[in-house]
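#struct-help
A.M.: can someone run this one for me? Single chain, 256 residues.
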Amino acid sequence: MATSPKLRVLLAEDNLVNQKVAIRMLSRIGYEADVVINGQEAVDALSRTPYDVIFMDMQMPVMDGLEATRVIRDTVSSERQPHIIALTANAMRGDKERCMAAGMNDYISKPVQMDILANALASVHPLSSSASTSPHDEEHQAVMAGIRTQLLELAGEDDDEFVREILSDYLEVAPELLRKIQAAIQEHDVTQARNAAHTLKSSSGAIGAAELQELCNNLEQLAYTGTLDGAVALTTDINEAFERLERILQKEVEAA
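D.P.: on it. Structure tokens below:
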């Protein structure tokens, strides 16, 4: 079968047997998949990795597939919205309509047949098709395009000096906020983690750094629940996103 190996696939399924069957089927048609066991884990995984497609079981503990899909459609930026395919063993009247109403793109009944699985994936395209062509240059251009648009709207004119000034200020304050976040996680200080994440989110949003803004928002929302469970992995993502952003911004500032 023809496949699209570049697709990033997530399987949200709590039944171990169903997990193994689905993984084997996907493997036979050329795909690998990460696995989570409930809708909340699917939402969390998507905040870390831009999956192209999610196979979402409708009935799972903690958060079912319908609610997880609604959360994803409401909170994930448009450029990172995955193709969501419902999986259900019930095949009850009205299931497909409920899936579509929640924001799912497709619907497959269990037991899943391999040809149906392959057909469902055939229409899915990667969120980004630029991975093979100058990724660092394209990332730099894409990030700076968004930042310039944001800052020049504030400046009211094509003011490169203003852009560099704001970026320099951001590069000074962001590392300290990252240190506060790291310290708060180590000390299990929910309040400090929330406040530092909020401030970094706000600053990142102000300059148009959408990825870091979104990650900080995820940490802030987690802290609002009163727990930091899962915050270590999220903080790692935040630090990695800032390191990428820092390299790009530093080049822009030094280009003066």
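A.M.: thanks! The chain is about 60% helix and 10% strand.
D.P.: also worth noting: Confidence is low (pLDDT under 50) at residues 1-5, 129-135.
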